[in-house]
Amino acid sequence: MIFPALFIFAIYGLLILFLAKGFDQLKPPNAKKYKADTLFSILVPFRNEASNLPQLLSSFAALDYPKDKTEIILINDRSDDNFEQVISEFKHDHKSINLVIIHGQSDSESPKKDAIELGLSKASNPWIITTDADCIVPKNWLQAFNGFIASDAPKMIVAPVTYFLGEGFLNKFQLLDFLSLQGTTIGSFGLKGKGLSRPFLCNGANLCYEKKAFLDVDGYKGNRDIASGDDVFLLEKMYDKFQDKVRFLKSEDAIVQTSAKESLKGLMQQRIRWAAKTSSYRHSFGKLVGLTVFLANIFIIILLTMSIFNRFSWSYFGFFFLLKFNLDFLLLYKTASFINQKEILTSYFYASLVYPFFTVFVALLSFRRSYTWKESSFHK
How far is residue 19's CA from residue 292's CA, in Å, rounded to a whole number? Predict the structure, then answer.
């Protein structure tokens, strides 16, 4: 067993070091302030988010960007709460903001993709930004995108997302897990185009792209039968066509914050939904990363079990556990420093004890043919 473990952890170690190098190689954008010339359409699909919409809309109102160069399109996906009252009150108090609401009636396997396409069809501006109703955007959010567009002429911009730092172990565990995903995302962009590596992760809560580019790649055509993936499958198509024009905006001014799940059940449903789309990745690097992470974590569980039953040396188990612990911490520390959430690292030890079991359990459940999200059932 020791030789297979050495092989797996050697690959895992190389992968983490590879991503850490990519993280460092991806530099922040030019700090020069550009004239606010870019016209943005912000799309927000939502369903039963009346409790979250006020904080999102308030953050839109606080944006430091010309109101006449921005439109906000809220796409309602069959909500049955009091969202209309919330939006009406906001529009009454902020008459200078160009905000419209449209209603979708999608009953397909991909309601979010349908909502975004509906919103995009109504968008009058050449640049599209998507975010979620449970988010808060920073004051200089649009300024950051505008400057990056002016300086680098991208076709698609992936930008950072994090959770609010809350109380309780469940919240802290989710934040650490999410930061690891952000670190992997940034690292993969830093090394894109080198060998087999390529960007393979992004988050629809903070995604910007040229409307024409979306239409040039036929939008979501080819993956509308997959419920999730409005972000990563579009990233794959954009990268195939535009490559170096698909960029990550490594800027503190672009960090969007969102809420962690309040219950373990909600967390499991979300992560199963995310993991379920991995098998549908069209490119090998993302699948390789997913498989390597899964094998490293399942080996930790296997070695622990064997050690408990005296079939494996505790000292060897300790070696592999500490190896993984320190490798993961390397990328996590870089990410937490960039996001300005280093205080969460005080919970890292306890989270690292739970993480292998959580990851393996989610991965195994993701192989099921269906899953539940927001009281609806979806097929893979």
Answer: 13
What does the pLDDT read at residue 273? 80
Q: Using CA of residue 8, residue 268, residue 287, residue 15, what is the dihedral sign? A: negative
pTM of the model: 0.92
Residues 307, 134: Cα–Cα separation, whole Å? 44
DSSP E strand boundaries for the chain: 40-46, 70-77, 99-104, 127-130, 135-136, 156-158, 161-163, 207-210, 246-248, 256-258, 370-373, 376-379
**Cβ atoms within 10 Å of 321's Cβ, excluding its own:** 17
Could you tell me which of 85, 371, 329, 104 has the C-alpha nearest to residue 227?
A: 371
Cα–Cα–Cα angle for 188, 190, 194, nearest 5°? 80
pLDDT digits (tens, 9 = 90+) for 238-265: 999 998 899 999 999 999 999 999 899 8
The DSSP bridge pattern shows strands 70-77 and 99-104 to be parallel
> Distances in Å between the alpha carbon of 324 and those of 105, 237, 275, 300?
46, 33, 21, 9
For 89-96, what is the mean pLDDT?
93
Q: Which has the closest alpha carbon to 296: 284, 285, 304?
A: 304
**Tokens 């393979």 identify what position?**
200
Question: What is the residue-wise DSSP string for 74-108?
Answer: EEEES--SSHHHHHHHHHHH-TTS-EEEEEE---S
Q: Which domains does the chain have, with CATH numbers?
A: 2-22+284-365 (no CATH), 26-261 (3.90.550.10)
Average pLDDT, the chain: 90
Torsion of CA 216, 206, 13, 177, to 10 degrees: -140
* Amino acid letter, residue 326: N
